[in-house]
Amino acid sequence: MAKIKANHFLVLGIVALIEIPMILAWVWMTGDYREPRFNEWPVTEWLVNYQGGFVRRGLIGELLLAISDPLTGILPNLYRLVLSSYFIYILIFFALYFAAQIKNYRVLLIALIIQGGIYHMGISADFYTRKENLFLILFGLLCLLYIDASKRQGQPRKNSFTTLISLAIISAPLMILIHEAYLFMSFPLTVLLLWIACKENPSHIYLRLGLMMYIVICLIFFISCSIHHGDVISAQAIWDSLPLVDRLKISPAAPYSQYAAISSIGWTLDQHLSTIYGVLISGGAYIWVFFILGNGLSLVFIAITIYPHAPEIQPKRILGLLAIGLFISSGMFLIAADWGRWIAFISNQLILLMFALKASSLAKEDEQSKYLLLLIQQLRKIKIKYLFILVLIYGLVFQMPECCVQYPHLFVFQSLFS
Fold this sequence. Notes:
This protein is mainly α. The protein is about 70% helix and about 0% strand. The chain contains 21 helices and no strands. It starts with a helix and ends with a helix.
């Protein structure tokens, strides 16, 4: 009886943690448009377009400009887009959770409240307002297709994997044209997922050819975007192409001068890397250490709960695959100083991968690496009950910032009531 009551409380808590951020996001994004609904930097990053010639990150901005009324501006359509992307991601997240047949409310709870996850997105208007939320949506779709294909046999299995690899190939150039950081963010784990599909289906030669095609296409489009990274002249042309009503809202003091992310479109690699130096000299590096540790422990809890290892059974490859995924995704920390965004994205994408690999035969094979076996041996010593309490408090009390050298909100109540 006590266990049933505890589960009831967990279910009620999970429902509240879904409804509250969704309601807050809806009210905030459909409210008064006289002021920007989120920070000017991500707002203007969405508005980069091709009016000054072909430049990186311009695809979404060009489409928004084309469908928007010059009198009402682009911003209302932008708010609808980011709000829709948030709701779509939530839908895909739960579809993947149920498709993977996890059936563990504690896993679901921690996956929702992990810093940068669905709960914190909604209460802070952060993370989902960035372009990488589209990357999460795409990766979630690929994971759903992978689970569906893994459950099938014969020709239906081949057809499902064909759909999987086709979606990856077709969407890759679009994602890079939306933001070239896709190569550092979603590309690594997508390659890992497709590689796993290849290993599990050695007779499907088209999967290996598709994986190579995906890699080549991503590299070609990334190089093209790097070459056409923009300059001061193209940045001003982009800014001038925006409706005046939008420019007055974004930069009322100087509506005719390029501003925020649009002004940074011509930055060189050195300028982007110099922002990382700001993380160190601002004295806030310890904050990122705290959130890396906190999210790391949350991911460990989710992993060892979904994939428990009995002491008498040989550990499986799943934790090794997740460790590889974490390692190959860590390059995004060298892009710029937005470390909160990188921590959130890695965490969310690894959770989606954990769900997907429930259907993986490769993940169920015995682990052979002596280093990973040693790590697993240490993880077995963790008291899962106390770890759950720790990461629950961490997720409910703190609020991870997106960026960079200023840290105004580190607690949830500051995001809700500031």
